[in-house]
Amino acid sequence: xxxxxxxxxxxxxxxxxxxxxxxxxxxxxxxxxxxxxxxxxxxxxxxxxxxxxxxxxxxxxxxxxxxxxxxxxxxxxxxxxxxxxxxxxxxxxxxxxxxxxxxxxxxxxxxxxxxxxxxxxxxxxxxxxxxxxxxxxxxxxxxxxxxxxxxxxxxxxxxxxxxxxxxxxxxxxxxxxxxxxxxxxxxxxxxxxxxxxxxxxxxxxxxxxxxxxxxxxxxxxxxxxxxxxxxxxxxxxxxxxxxxxxxxxxxxxxxxxxxxxxxxxxxxxxxxxxxxxxxxxxxxxxxxxxxxxxxxxxxxxxxxxxxxxxxxxxxxxxxxxxxxxxxxxxxxxxxxxxxxxxxxxxxxxxxxxxxxxxxxxxxxxxxxxxxxxxxxxxxxxxxxxxxxxxxxxxxxxxxxxxxxxxxxxxxxxxxxxxxxxxxxxxxxxxxxxxxxxxxxxxxxxxxxxxxxxxxxxxxxxxxxxxxxxxxxxxxxxxxxxxxxxxxxxxxxxxxxxxxxxxxxxxxxxxxxxxxxxxxxxxxxxxxxxxxxxxxxxxxxxxxxxxxxxxxxxxxxxxxxxxxxxxxxxxxxxxxxxxxxxxxxxxxxxxxxxxxxxxxxxxxxxxxxxxxxxxxxxxxxxxxxxxxxxxxxxx
Length: 634
What we know:
Elements: H1 6-14, H2 23-31, E1 36-39, H3 46-56, E2 60-64, H4 68-80, E3 85-88, H5 94-105, E4 111-114, H6 122-128, E5 133-138, E6 170-174, H7 179-188, E7 195-198, E8 206-212, H8 216-226, E9 230-234, H9 238-250, E10 255-258, H10 264-276, E11 281-284, E12 297-302, H11 309-316, E13 326-332, H12 334-347, H13 351-364, E14 376-378, H14 381-388, H15 392-404, E15 408-416, E16 419-422, H16 426-435, H17 440-449, E17 458-459, H18 462-469, H19 473-485, E18 489-492, E19 495-502, H20 516-538, H21 543-550, H22 563-567, H23 575-591, H24 596-603, H25 607-619, E20 623-625, E21 631-633
Parallel strand pairs: 1-6, 1-7, 2-4, 2-5, 3-4, 5-6, 8-13, 9-11, 9-12, 10-11, 12-13
Antiparallel strand pairs: 14-19, 15-19, 16-17, 16-18, 20-21
Helix pairs in contact: 2-3, 12-20, 13-15, 18-19, 20-21, 23-25
């Protein structure tokens, strides 16, 4: 049987003629059956590194991924390419999960996505033995390390899969891992003589800039004018995303806001508006961006200081993925740096506070002592904090500690789709249609579109129904509610809610214990990450080099385009920077003739450097300067 080559797979499904640097070597290592660790920076094309070999190998690739949104995004993209992929997550019924496993058993799936928590299920692990698993891909592998910035204890159970699947290669992938985290990934995943691949953390076209200001909104306005095109503005809180978005709209910018508190429909619509160019600027929390690969983002602005370089690098790295000059700007106030230093004590509350929150949660769900293990509960955190008069951030920090200790898990966003079932017989339904002609088209569409809708609650898609009927979606929902009120159907609209999963039976709060040495070690590591973030802001060194050094990439030279390199009194701009600047100038004066001052404002460059570069262009005969002092293309 002929197996296609990696290049043939790449061309067939993605339409690319060649791989990016390192990708082909990673793919070959996996095809050779080697355990592999690939640390590829944001935008480095990690997914292709496991998807291509999985399509070449017989069987199904088991993909372990931490976020439902990330899993679903990849499944949708694979399905659009004509590749069979499914995800098992908490939003599915037991019957739907069984169907997916059966399809996998019968060889109908190339990719099966699961959360790491799924591997806690002995029943699921036993079923794995019967599945034709060809390889395992561990996405966001840094989550396995307690020294990482996003530790997920459930990742520690991944190695147990090896008991059920013999001699199957594992590929672990992450965009950001320090040397300490890299060693932890190898140890905790029990990788055997792994092949290591380490992409460069330098982004030649990305200019890092940091600015201290007490007037962030006006600085943001100037940045958006100076960097026209698509942009992302990150904020720490949901409230600030709307506030800044509203202000930008008042200033006539095409902006919108995005955060995890919006419904799935709203998030999808806003994301699509941004991707399609209907809006230029998305003001968001870090809930935005995961799985999105829009290549032409010209500007990323952080309105608040992130608490670690890992998050900052990932978010800033969403700019300039097309290789063109782009900027990543971090705005801060001096007071914020002092507030950052206080975060470790807030992020790691004392045991008395942890016990108080644990007891309140158990009482909120009226959970008796000795019960609860494996139970899910919908969790309205705002209602909970109000009921028990607790501080929201204190509760969130305690929930994080309880998750680390595998006592309970807080899932911020769980989507449950709408379900519908007819509760009348067909004869009564026909009589109802005679008296309610306006609802007849909807009833007919439901019966034609969804099989088994008389026998079981069935998932429905209101958007699809609206499209089929050529109705507005709000009219569809109103009509469904009317049918429900008439007793014709049982309609449960979709909902998105946070959930609590108890991983142990409830105990007396004063008996609750945590692994104190690990707790202290994580607190010190967190303080160290904050110190490195502050160093990035305050250091006089090249910003790109600070980031590269932090991730163990010591081969880099100064970038020549960050604000530190540009303003350094001891160095001229690098050839690379001059080349990028030449391109930007030519693009701008192609649009219209511009004076020196107009160019300086639009391109936002040091006056001395801009003069030097304009002289180079004039000497080479690429531009001319008119009597009126305006530059134009020759």
